[in-house]
Amino acid sequence: MSLLTVGSVAFDAIETPFGKTDKIIGGAGTYIAFSSSYFVPTQNIVSVVGNDFPQEMLDKLKGRGVNLEGLQIKQGEKTFFWSGRYHNDMNSRDTLVTELNVLEHFDPIIPASYQGADYVLLGNLSPQVQKTVIERLDTRPKLVAMDTMNFWMDIAMDALKETLKLVDVLIINDEEARQLSGEYSLVKAAKKIREMGPTYLIIKKGEHGALLFHGEQVFFAPALPLEEVFDPTGAGDTFAGGFMGYIASTDDYSFENMKRAIITGSAMASFCVEEFGTNKLENLTKSEIEERIQSFVRLTDFDMVQTVG
Ligand code: AMP
Q1: How far is the CA of 112 from the centre of ligand 1 (A)?
Q2: DSSP secondary structure of 231-253
Q3: What separation in angstroms does the CA of 121 have from each of 156, 171, 242?
Q4: Which residues of the chain fall short of a pLDDT of 50?
Q5: For labeling, which of 48, 68, 215, 216 is most exposed (least CB within 10 Å)?
Q6: Domain boundaries defined on the chain
Q7: Nearest CA to ligand 1 atom 11
Q8: In this predicted structure, what is the pLDDT of residue 307?
Q9: pLDDT tens-digit series, residues 241-273
Q10: What CATH superfamily is the domain 3-299?
Q11: Is residue 173 packed enough to be buried (19+ CB in 10 Å), middle (13-18) or exposed (0-12)?
């Protein structure tokens, strides 16, 4: 089934308690593309970079089946740049720099060959751009999922709420769910957010796993207890890419299958954090991924032999 993905393709500079990088390749769209590429043979990406972006990385994406026809390269302009510093707990971070550059006036063009997409994942980008992408699709996809972040809530909350009306699945973290809803309790937050549009809501809680809300149903997926988290950047996008890649490859967006998709996304995110940037995600094997998914299955597998009374 065809998958269309949208998101920033960027330069990042990251500081963690373990080290610091110069400009490396990042971006929500990049993490999504690598992660979902293990599930779908091909995907269509919509994004924009400047002509300072290395061809070598574009070739790597192509090599993983990513169609770059919808990725604009702006001559004489600079690629989006983001820099962040993680706190000692590695769960929270401060954004140090956001230079929108090519993203500032990004007009997403949907090539004709991208039309008819069954599944769409709107990665982290301005909510206006996310909305424009949906509006430029000739047919309504089976499922539209969307990610966003506090940055857009701070500067474009109204636009974000307009975009939310058009999506089926929202994927955000616990802090963002609280900011969006104004509620501290995640159950109350989930209720309010689903009244804004998305019928499915996934709330990520970093090393504490993720929750899926739909109607009266709730599902909880753990995060794998890892000995070392090297760099959490992109974990959320990698999760979303694995989630949507799995849904698209199985062509099943029932609540039951979303549970499997969440475990798949969590497994992919657990690889992402093991190295700086997209390094780890670029060359995974099928058996590594399968083994990691089984680790998740074992993590919560237990037999209840006796109940009270
Ligand atoms: P995550 O760690 O999953 O929240 O995603 C981190 C990635 O998001 C980094 O690679 C950044 O390049 C990208 N990013 C950070 N801020 C923004 C923003 N305002 N818009 C789009 N992408 C962003």
Answers
A1: 28
A2: --TTHHHHHHHHHHHHHHHHT--
A3: 20, 10, 11
A4: none
A5: 216
A6: 3-299
A7: 27
A8: 78
A9: 999 999 999 999 999 999 999 999 999 999 999
A10: Ribokinase (3.40.1190.20)
A11: buried
